[in-house]
């Protein structure tokens, strides 16, 4: 890989990477304390506030994952469907900033290719 092929690391990429790391540590760490699906469903059934937040996040997450897959495909990123599969086990607070980091790098790569043409 030559210097010309390298994608520069920008402050925006660093911000997305930090956000992804924080999301993984905070939400991933909190998820270790969930006693399982049965316990989670019982907790949600006890409080309308918890159920409202859970449904809001679920209904927000679906279009976000659809956007991620479509955008990854549009930018020519490899295996765009993988983002949908990763949304199941990984926290969105980690996965979405990670996608934006990869997207930013794909945009810079695409800009470099167009500039050479």
SSE arrangement:
Elements: H1 11-31, H2 37-46, H3 48-74, H4 82-86, H5 92-116
Helix pairs in contact: 1-5, 2-3, 3-5
Q: What features would you describe in this structure?
A:
The chain starts with 10 loop residues before the first helix and ends with a helix. The longest helix is centred in the middle third of the chain and has 27 residues. With 117 residues, the chain is mostly helical. The protein is built from 5 helices and no strands. The model has no long low-confidence stretch (mean pLDDT 87). The protein is elongated and about 60 Å long. The chain has a domain of 81 residues.
Offer a few descriptive terms.
117 residues, mainly alpha, 5 helices, 0% strand
Give a short summary of the structure.
This protein is mainly α and 117 residues long. The protein has 5 helices and no strands.
The helix count comes to: 5
The value of Rg in angstroms is 18 Å
N→C terminal distance: 19 Å
Helix content: over 70%
Anisotropy-based shape: elongated
Mean pLDDT: 87
Sketch the major β-sheet: none
Oligomer: single chain
